[in-house]
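Question thread 4412

I'm putting together a teaching handout and wanted feedback from people who do this every day. The idea is simple: show students a protein as raw sequence, then show them the structure tokens that encode its fold, then repeat with a second protein so they can compare. Below is the first pair exactly as I plan to print it.
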Amino acid sequence: MAITIKDVAKKANVAPSTVSRVIANSPRISEKTKRRVRKIMDELGYHPNMNARSLANQMTQALGLVMPSSASKAFLNPFFPEVIRGISSFSHVKDYSLYMSTGDTEEEIFEGVARMVQGKRVDGIIVLYSRTNDKVVQYLHEQQFPFVLIGKPSHAMESITYIDNDNYLAGREVTEYLLSLGHKRIAFIGGSPDLMVTKERLAGYKEALKLANIALPDEYVCFMEFLREGGQLAVEHLMSYEEAPTAIVVTDDLMALGVLSTLSEKGYHVPDEVSVVSFNNVVFAEIAYPPLTSVDVKIYQLGYEAAKNLIERIETPNFSPKSIIVPYKLIVRQTCKPSI
């Protein structure tokens, strides 16, 4: 026979209403009582009926996830599985499930988000990117629907909570690192120019060059997809110049893999002839050949903080918008060397 809430209450020597409040994580119940009741729930193998609970409080106990492009393409980049791992970790603790919006075009993605909101399929949404003039963010803002942005908003919206790194400072720091090694011809490979992460890192790169009184041709800046093929195409472009760069800032590790492989195919030795520094510090950065110098942006923490702040926004009526800046760290490996 199935274990009921009354069975848990009897063994815990509390009222059934207390067990209900423990399940709902009510602040009216002490942490000591919550721990005792939850332990007994585990011992008895009791699992709350989340569907009934959702009907009672008109909540779905689900969070929506919005990718920057089709899921099949986005999942080629290790950033997204890792950020979703962070989101999932906190969501699991709070008994929230995840609901992913999919679509092959921006219009299809927008329509999927509208269905999530209008159909009340989720209690809140995490947008896993930030770009200028984004219909999804504008729609969520106008609907006053709970959402959190991973990335800096493209323009001031008072009610937006976002989780990000200081990408301007990181872009400047990695460029200054290459300058400190004596490099003067430093190229930049970014993602789409309408993505805020590209804009911020590019601004930091340009500021470092400006402070060093170095002027480079516009052709030293490339915008490609955050895919390995993007890095390959960028190298074809950059290394065709008579004065080719001696160092490259790449804004994504997957792109950097394409950079490393294409440089090798063309006969350039990294780091002897070309230095490469990248961002994200995903799992293969350490096992790349050579091991990739990369900025650890704490991807898991970005996702964890996004879920934490969204659920807090959902469950707290007077929640004040926040900007959470996750610290980063440059991990120096073997793809950078002083300029000869």
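The second pair follows. I'd like the answer to focus on this one:
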Amino acid sequence: MKKLIKKFLAVTSDNNFIHTIEIIEVIVAKLLSLLMLVVIFVTLVDLGKFIIAEIIYPQKGSFSYTLFQIFGLFLNVLIALEILENITGYLRKHVLQVELVIVTSLIAIARKIIILDLKVTEGIEIIGLGIAILALSISYLIIRSSHSK
């Protein structure tokens, strides 16, 4: 009975528990990577279909609107690639790279601004996006300067 209790205590020790959690984190990160690859390829197919449809059946007078949609779809792919880079960076170093997260956030907000329809957007939303960009830019500068030291 004492041997059984010792084995149970050894299995449930802090080191074994943390090791188990690390293994689960790696498995989840790998699954997220695979799923993100699927998302990227589906988004590329969607982008290709959209561009081909716009070339074959162009709508008169809506080229600038179509161009903004294409930019938005391109930036969706870039955001997905940045998220994939975040995940693979985590798999390599087992540390979440804050600089990559901030850059991904900046790209996402830039995408939002590029596809923004100023006719239906309220001023407070534009102010909020500006504040978010300012905060993320300052954060990026702080992290970048701390890395150079």
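Top answer:
Good format. For the second protein you could add a caption like this: The longest helix spans residues 14-56. The chain has five helices and no strands.
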